[in-house]
Design goal:
This protein is mainly α. The protein has a domain of about 55 residues. Helix content is about 85%, strand content about 0%. The chain has 4 helices and no strands. The relative contact order is 0.13.
């Protein structure tokens, strides 16, 4: 899937400049690089939690600890995404942000 800032139709509709697109791309590439290890570890911890629950051989306290490990990693991923979204919004003008929200809403409606 093409990121929205590389989608020709979106670029045209919100009047995204090449400089803005490059800056947005840099934000998301940086996040991807920084969070890759966290995402891999989160998947590993989720798999471990799933395994522990399926085997039913450990105490509730162990499940709680494993759940907390996984949620801490998921929280880091969610936080980094929220920050990247905010950074992206700061690159766009108010009008572009409004137009992008309208596109996203339209796409959500179309998917229903």
């Amino acid at each position: 899937m093409v990121p929205w800032w590389k989608d020709v139709a979106v670029i045209k509709e919100i009047n995204l400049t090449p400089d803005q697109a490059a800056r947005i791309d840099a934000v998301w590439r940086k996040r991807e690089t920084e969070m890759h290890g966290v995402a891999v570890e989160s998947k590993k911890q989720q798999d471990e939690l799933t395994r522990l629950v399926a085997e039913r051989k450990v105490g509730v306290d162990v499940i709680g600890i494993q759940f907390d490990r996984n949620e801490a990693l998921r929280s880091m991923l969610a936080k980094s995404r929220a920050i990247a979204l905010y950074q992206t919004s700061l690159i766009l003008t108010a009008e572009q942000n409004t137009a992008l929200r309208a596109i996203r809403e339209r796409n959500r409606r179309d998917q229903r």
